[in-house]
Amino acid sequence: MSQQKEKIGVIGHGLMGRGIIHSYAENGFEVVAVKRRDNDTRLEDHFRHEIKKGRLEEEQYTTIKKQITSTTDLSAIADCQLIIENISENVAEKVALFDTLENLCPPETIFATNTSSIPIGKMAKKTKRPEKVIGLHYMSPVQVMDLVEIVKGLETSKETLDTCIAINKQINKVPVVVKDFPGFVASRLVSTLVNEASFIYMQGVAEAEAIDEIAKLGMNLPVGPLKLADLVGLDTALYTLDSLFENFKDPKYRANPLLRTMVESGHLGRKTGKGFYDYNK
């Protein structure tokens, strides 16, 4: 494949979507970023946060911003070679989105999903282009983490796989290919760690800070499991566990009842200001 940079469509301005938009635009790709509402300023807020943290210079942001077209018009991504969806972890919603995209995009367009747990085949079989459907599971925060877990469905073509590997190398990611299976690799590992950490917290063995510190220092993790759960969203963590339990029927994936109670109470982590940590202080 040539090194010409493709035009990338990214759907969703949530935590993962913002990081993906950032990563592609920073590396010279033209990005069409589709959001749900005109007044959604989360992408701009993301870049301001990166500048405040010292991970991005104002001059860099000026250059990056020129690469991004932010819109609520889904048809604006019709001419993108690769489209990456980052909407909620719901099979029906993702399938409905792909169905809409079928009528907008030419047959050669690749449909990628950033799902953390839903089997790629469940979505691919609902399309007219299963060979063009693939999983691109990025790690959070995307603009910092090197790994992208590339999930090859049973129908995913070699051409689609090779294209996605090449494109991700162009944004300085390390692509690791895995087979289509519920939860793939990363989500199964992380979910069991987060779930066990939440059980330890519920049982009163240690406070959240202590659990995370032990995990960081004892396992050399960049961030503790409870802080990570707050970052990605406790609702997402719960959905992933429920999805794994539904697919495997293995009790090790049975979600901690405290985690479920927190989600039902609206304590979703950073995005609501409270999770295992209180971010309103």
Notable characteristics:
281 residues; alpha/beta; 8-stranded mixed β-sheet; 43% helix; 14% strand; 3HC_DH_C; 3-hydroxyacyl-CoA dehydrogenase family protein
Summarize the structure.
This protein has helices spanning about 15-25, 40-50, 60-65, 90-100, 120-125, 160-170, 185-200, 210-220, 225-230, 235-250, 255-265, and strands at about 5-10, 30-35, 70, 80-85, 110-115, 135-140, 145-150, 175-180.
Shape: globular
Largest sheet geometry: 8 strands, mixed
Number of strands: 8
- In percent terms, what proportion of residues is strand? 5-15%
Write down the secondary-structure element order: EHEHHEEHEHEEHEHHHHH
Give average pLDDT, whole number.
95
* Structural class by secondary-structure content: alpha/beta
Uncertain stretches of 5 or more adjacent residues:
none
Order of adjacent strands in the largest pleated sheet = 3-2-1-4-5-6-7-8
Count helical runs: 11
Domain 3-hydroxyacyl-CoA dehydrogenase NAD binding: 7-180
Domain 3-hydroxyacyl-CoA dehydrogenase C-terminal: 183-279
EC number: 1.1.1.35
Protein name: 3-hydroxyacyl-CoA dehydrogenase family protein
Textual characterization of the structure:
- The protein has 281 residues and is an alpha/beta fold.
- The protein contains eleven helices and eight strands.
- It has helices at residues 15-26, 42-52, 58-66, 91-102, 120-124, 158-170, 186-202, 208-219, 225-232, 234-248, 257-264; strands at 7-11, 30-34, 68-71, 82-85, 110-113, 133-138, 147-152, 174-179.
- The protein has an eight-stranded mixed β-sheet.
- Strand 6 (133-138) and strand 7 (147-152) form a beta hairpin.
- Helix 9 crosses helix 10.
- The radius of gyration is 19 Å and the shape is globular.
- The model has no long low-confidence stretch (mean pLDDT 95).
